[in-house]
Amino acid sequence: MPTAPLNQYAEGELMSLPKALQNREFRSTHAGAFSERLIVISLALCAVATVLITVGIIYMLITESAGFFRSDAVTMSGFLTDTEWTALQSKELEQATFGILPLLSGTFRVTLIAMLIALPLGLVTAIYLSEFASARIRSWLKPTLEIIAGVPTVVLGYFAILVISPSLQMVSDGAFSTFNATSAGIAVGILCLPMVCSLSEDAMRAVPRSLREGAYGLGCTPFETSVKVVVPAALSGIISAFLLAFSRAVGETMVVALAAGTLPTMTLDPTQQAQTMTGFIVEMIKSESEYGTVQYYSLYAVAVTLFLITFGMTLCGQIIRRRFQESYQ
Amino acid sequence: MSSVTPAIVSEKNSDDLSDQTLIHIEKLNAWYGDFQAIHDLSLEIPKHKVTAFIGPSGCGKSTLLKWINRMNDVVPGARAKGRLTIDDDHQGQRKEIDVLDPNLDVVGLRRKVGIVFQKPNPFPKSIYDNVAFGPRLHMKTSKSELDELVEWSLQKAAVWDEVKDRLHGPALGLSGGQQQRLCIARAIAVGPEVLLMDEPCSALDPSSTLAIEDLIFELRSQYTIVIVTHNMQQASRCSDKTAFFFEGRLIEAGNTEQVFTKPKNKQTDDYVRGKFG
To answer: How many folded domains does chain B comprise?
Structure first.
């Protein structure tokens, strides 16, 4: 039985295709495969380059600091346990002592003060931004924080000497010296604040809404929800933010070179000078110490120590992230 | 389950004569911003029964559910007018909780009216800590009391046997169906009277769904359950009362059997037969 044609188009026309599909001028897929391979190879080369650079830096640090430890004036145990570092202060090698502890103590004094400022303030700000702030408040608070992140560190260092130090001196009746660990620490803390805040906020915003609803449904107040559910759920992200900030503070150079002073001191007193490891490296490179002397090479030993600390922090961060990261459906 | 069913059925018959209303809804209107999600809705929800809300997406059934324990408080722009009250036997004295009262103790309300969500949402903590979360928040309990409460809740939620050997393992390591039963255990651990369930099975596979439905059936001897579902078979399987919503209005409410077999309204008839929605 003849039926009406299903096709609404006239015979031979089949369907009116757009021009591009009628011409069928598709690119050769063979050439595509070749260029694809070329792209993959160049991507791999770039990746290898970063690895090579890292390996090169580590190689240089190790070989050069080996030169330092080969010197008769230095022993490994002395380096690790002596409480004096006089590489810059003593011209004669015989009088110089190379104990890393004062530099370490300087670094950790500054870092500790910085963390005391950046971690609580950063975390609280992040909680506020992620859980409580209205869109309007967020829209000006976040850019403000980003401005801090954009301030050149040299400006912050200057700020530490010209504003923070005098303020501290005024408040404490002159107990603080002009260059001191506290003002440098405060400035470094301000520097780390945006990092702690934005990374923690990202981690908290990644916590699914359903968890917050679950907490509300059980009778949590918004504050209890953030503290008992959101923060614990975002803990891995928050801890890695803390560790990154810590590494940043340990490695921070310009602020401490300007504001922390140039005297390596073995003390816990935050009102006094505190040369940090990074501060020493700057100082040594800028000094008149001759290239090739043991004093000069000591900067590599300091650099290795610094590298090991930040590397350790990065590693810890990785482990924590892997261990505590929750996968949500 | 099979051993429990007959008892429930006979109980159902005797209870039908004396439906005691627990939740009264009168002329409720609700909005999200300018959009009116619920129009002039009146409904009575009976005590110790399973009431199913059915209807196509956007019909207002979830909105209504979330007003019963004020979950909508956290939704910007959500507001409601009308009357929504829950009977409360407070030490022998009958009282009424005015749910929409802006000065209401919402924490107390949510302790009384628990909620289970569409997607299982256990906290990224251990199984034990999930169930203990609510009790730790609301009451002072000794370690042994808390242990007992956690076990009781998990048993009630029919998941105890599967998790008793790994109470301190991560809740997120459980299967979807187990997670959902854990969420039910977490909700009943604070001693609610009402359990709201917002499409509790829509993210689960068929066998987990069946387990949850069995559970809902068993729980109603002690809890008043309100369940929102898209799944008509589910509503007919596990509810006593059914309310059909369409475009923010209550179209028909009644005994589940009647709504599904002899609906009074044409729209209800079309919907339960699967003609739309």
So the answer is: 1
Tokens of A121: 């303030």
Give me the residue from A211, A224, A233 closest to B137, CB to CB.
A224
Interface mutation vs chain A, best among B106, B113, B123, most A CBs within 10 Å:
B123
Q: What is the CATH number of the domain that holds B125?
A: 3.40.50.300
Query: Is residue B70 a part of any domain in this protein?
Result: yes
Closest CA in chain A for residue B131: A218
pTM flag (> 0.90): no
Instruction: Report whether pLDDT(A186) > 70.
Output: yes
For residue A219, give the nearest of B117, B119, B190 by CB distance. Answer: B190
**Chains A, B: CB pairs < 8 Å:** 73
Per the structure, the complete domain to which residue B56 belongs is given by: 20-272
Contact status, residue A203 vs residue A238, Cβ threshold 8 Å: yes
Is B35 touching A (CB cutoff 8 A)? no
3-state secondary structure of A234: coil
- Report the C-alpha gap between A156 and A254 in whole angstroms: 9
Place of tokens 């956007």: B58
Please state the ipTM of this predicted complex. 0.84
Is residue B3 in a domain? no
- Report the range of poorest mean pLDDT among A12-26, A292-306, B144-158: A12-26
Q: What are B209-236's pLDDT values in tens digits? A: 888 898 898 898 899 999 999 888 888 8
Per-residue pLDDT at A166 exceeds 90? yes
pLDDT given for residue B20 in this prediction: 85
How sure is the predictor about A31, in pLDDT bands with cuts at 50, 70 and 90?
low
**Nearest beta carbon to residue B123 from set A221, A224, A229:** A229
* Strand B35-46 to B50-54 pairing: unpaired
- In a domain, residue B61? The reply is yes
Mutation target among B69, B121, B178 for the A interface, most CBs of A within 10 A: B121
Task: Return the pLDDT at A22.
Answer: 77
> In Å, how far is A217's CA from the nearest CA of chain B?
6
Whether residue B71 and residue A217 make contact (CB cut-off 8 A), yes or no, is yes
Q: Using CB atoms, pick whichever of A210, A220, A222 lies closest to residue B117.
A: A210
pLDDT confidence of residue B80: 92
Within an 8 Å CB–CB cutoff, is residue B133 touching chain A? yes
- β-bridge partners, B93: B90
B107 touches chain A (CB under 8 A): yes
Domains, in order of start, for chain A: 93-324 (1.10.3720.10)
Residues B230/B239, Cβ–Cβ less than 8 Å: no
Strands B35-46, B21-32: pairing is antiparallel
Token code pair at residue B178: 């187990």
What is the per-residue DSSP string for B211-264? HHHHHHHHHTTTSEEEEE-S-HHHHHHH-SEEEEEETTEEEEEEEHHHHHHS-S
> Any residues with CB less than 8 A from the CB of A251 and at least 6 apart, and which?
A278, A306, A310
Which of A210, A221, A224 comes nearest B121 by C-beta? A210
Question: Which residues does chain B have within 8 Å of residue A216's beta carbon, measured at their own beta carbons?
Answer: 71, 73-74, 110
Kindly state the DSSP code that residue A327 receives in the 8-state scheme: -
